[in-house]
Amino acid sequence: MKLVVIGAQWGDEGKGKMVDYLAEDADLVVRFSGGANAGHTIKVGDQTFKLHLVPAGIIYPGKTVALGNGMVIDPESLFQELAGIKEQGVNWEGRVFISDRAHLVLPSYKQEDQNMESKRARPIGTTGRGIGVAYSRKADRDGIRVADLWDSVVWDSMKEEDRKWIQPYKNLLKDMKVNMAGFMMKNKDKQVLLEGAQGALLDLDHGTYPYVSSGISTCSGAALGAAIGPKHIDKALGVFKAYQTRVGNGPFPTEMLAEGSELDLGNQLRELGHEYGTTTGRPRRIGYLDLVALKYAGWVNSLDGYILSHLNLYDGFDKIEVCVAYEIDGVETIDFPSSTVDLDKVKPVLKALPGWEGKVGEARCWDDIPEAAKAVVKFIEEYTDVPVVGYSVGPLRDETFMKEPAWIKS
Ligand code: IMO
Ligand code: MG
Known about the structure:
Layout: E1 2-7, H1 15-22, E2 28-31, E3 40-44, E4 47-51, E5 64-67, E6 72-73, H2 75-87, E7 96-99, E8 103-104, H3 107-119, H4 131-139, H5 152-157, H6 160-174, E9 177-178, H7 180-186, E10 192-195, H8 219-225, E11 235-241, E12 243-246, H9 261-272, E13 285-290, H10 291-300, E14 305-309, E15 319-328, E16 331-333, H11 340-345, E17 347-354, H12 371-384, E18 388-392, E19 400-402
Parallel strand pairs: 1-10, 1-11, 2-5, 2-10, 5-7, 6-8, 7-9, 11-14, 13-15, 14-18
Antiparallel strand pairs: 3-4, 12-13, 15-16, 15-17, 18-19
Helix pairs in contact: 3-4
The chain binds 6-O-phosphoryl inosine monophosphate and magnesium ion (MG).
């Protein structure tokens, strides 16, 4: 079976933690998109792992992981990350494979990323990791893939300084590179977990363009970036938080901006949820849960289910407000707009749902969830037409549960 996990918002939904949880029953975990712009935090006991490139399944001893062809890989970051987890006791040798079609991020791309950003009429607030440069080189047919390091024409055309820089990594990559389609065919009967990065609203096509990342972070990218056909995907789950965050620039229809109690709520949620970037440390912008955007993400990813995280942050609040429509120039819509001009004009139509007694944070199964919180979930399910099948109510593995088993085909 092939199970996809994507982010259903602007990233940072808790995908890494969920992939780690679901990887227990996987044989192979494949990351299919993005690069070191991602930051996936996993807590196991008293250890915290911060992963940027390596698929989250790596923490389990003996599991195989692969970095797919849809990724852009900075080998220096990759081997630093692998050295870091090794120090934390994770023996990764022989378990990490890399598509030979994945594109490389060279050192000059990072500077270029920052230069491009400073010249943009609409700065995106990129992570400065050279991600956009690597993807644009790919589209320009001027990129360097892992396989190309053994192509004498490409190798000879590279700058001397780049060749020198990459040489030690080239030797390491040699033993890890695979023909991804062949690799996936060999693993076709295994339990494969396809790990997304970023989120639906940061997807190059479906996101809030141009304020997006440059990879395909929606479910279609799972097929593309892991060298399988779309029909091989058996199930797709999307992770979302009970509120909305965004790091970097761009429209944010439900952002908590108004002075007073709204801003206080945003600041409170930021502290409760530790909403500071894993990759850049930037404070994340906070907003009300946006059901218009969530329904859109459900559709463009053909989601079979959602995994809801951080609902526990609303424990003790008297209400939870969610956005049920956008008002643009006095007209209400539930279609997610394409234009940033329209997105910037949005006045969110909010609906207040009653808070609950008891603690979602203490729930370990659906039955433990307080009734009023269950009503919130049912409201979300009816609005979006996608069931909520799993919950993350804290950072630890045992603070996670499924209402429906994930590894059963829909
Ligand atoms: P994970 O996988 C949140 C954002 C950046 C910026 C925009 C473009 O941890 O959820 P880029 O460097 O990709 O060209 O930046 O995308 N961004 C993310 N925001 N989580 C991520 O990944 C992100 N990856 C990129 O902040 O606004
Ligand atoms: Mg992140």
